[in-house]
Amino acid sequence: MNQLSDRINNLSTSQTLAMAAKARELKAQGKDIISLSLGEPDFNTPDFIKEAAKKAIDENYSAYTPVDGYVELKEAICRKFKRDNGLDYTPSQIVVSTGAKQSLYNIAQVMLNDGDEVLLPAPYWVSYVEIVKLSGGVPVEVPTSVETDFKMTAEQLEAAITPKTKMMWFSSPCNPSGSVYSREELTAIAKVLEKYPNIYIVSDEIYEHINYSGTFCSIGSIPGMLERTITVNGVAKAFAMTGWRIGYIGAPEFIAKACTKIQGQVTSGANSIAQRATIAAVDADSSAIKYMVDAFHRRRDLVIGLAQEIPGFKLNVPEGAFYVFPDVSYYFGKTLNGVEIKNADDFSMYLLEHANVATVTGDAFGNPNCIRFSYATSEEQLIEALRRIKEALA
Ligand code: PMP
Ligand code: GLU
């Protein structure tokens, strides 16, 4: 008999983590797998951040921290929001959590009642849909396609709103499409939202710095939006700190208080040493991480160039993050090396088995025509991976 709760039985496993685990397992068996599955920088955490952590250990930052984070960190985050995003937050509006993933989970838990609808422009990041469902919410996908650079228009947004719509969650730069919403596009979206004052927005800006477009706009900086926006960010991606597990939000104070309340019962707050290190990260000038962003930019150009040569791949040019998200539906219904490709899951499995390259199916991101490659790996690996893929599809 299944002893587990309906809640967990109804939850899907994270496809990004599952594919990464599968690639690791095959590697351990001696297979020469190139993993383009997990979105994780291949750089080490910069030395100045590591130094801050070492100092924190020596200075005995070993006790419980305030549940919502050290005051010095929350003040540094306020400075960052002001400097980079033009957002005016006070420390009482900031909550530091165990990764942006936990920030998102907190938000869902404190904002959603059973049946509340959450609009998710698709493709969306894999965990949004499950976090929303886990919290009783109903994900409502707003589909987009490669033809429109995977961006939701203001008209599409308006058409998807119902009396039950409670929130809209999106990421820009977007994981998985790499699309970056311009100020004009966000202003048009904000104009629609003006008519629906009860809808709250989650703006996931974790790829803010990994952005080649030259511009970045936080929706909270558009007049009227800050009061209803929860700005989510973290240090995992830009500072190569995925394992340190620090994320944070800026939010209306009543939401920040609620997130602190839940965190007080569930984690007691984020890791003390990682919080001290994060002060150094968020206070840093963006020149400190430019070498990583430049490397991602070069790899983006490299991968796009190589992927465009593969017959049947339809691509947008991602302006941020470190993913490419080709539409591979050209292959559906075809048979490759005796394997029938019915959908993106089959295609991704085919690449794993016949090209030894791990990717993630677009289904996990709400787009069944695509697959996702992460290019957060070396240029040699990328060249070899794309060569293998091309060969396996020839
Ligand atoms: N949002 C997006 C769009 C992401 O890609 C990730 C990647 N992990 C997260 C949130 C969660 O970040 P963290 O590692 O800080 O939990
Ligand atoms: N955000 C990364 C990704 O999408 C890391 C994996 C995860 O947190 O799910 O691949």
UniProtKB/TrEMBL annotation:
BP GO terms, sorted: amino acid metabolic process
Cofactor: pyridoxal 5'-phosphate
Keyword check for Electron transport: no
GO MF annotations, alphabetized: pyridoxal phosphate binding; transaminase activity
Ranges where the Aminotransferase class I/classII large domain occurs: 31-389
Top-rank taxon: Bacteria
Assigned keywords, A-Z: Aminotransferase, Pyridoxal phosphate, Transferase
InterPro entries per the UniProt record, alphabetical: Aminotransferase_I/II_large, AspAT/PAT-like, NHTrfase_class1_PyrdxlP-BS, PyrdxlP-dep_Trfase, PyrdxlP-dep_Trfase_major, PyrdxlP-dep_Trfase_small
Coiled-coil region: none
Record carries keyword Transferase: yes
EC numbers on record: 2.6.1.-
Pfam family, one: Aminotran_1_2
Family stated for the protein in its record: Belongs to the class-I pyridoxal-phosphate-dependent aminotransferase family.
Protein name as it appears in the record: Aminotransferase
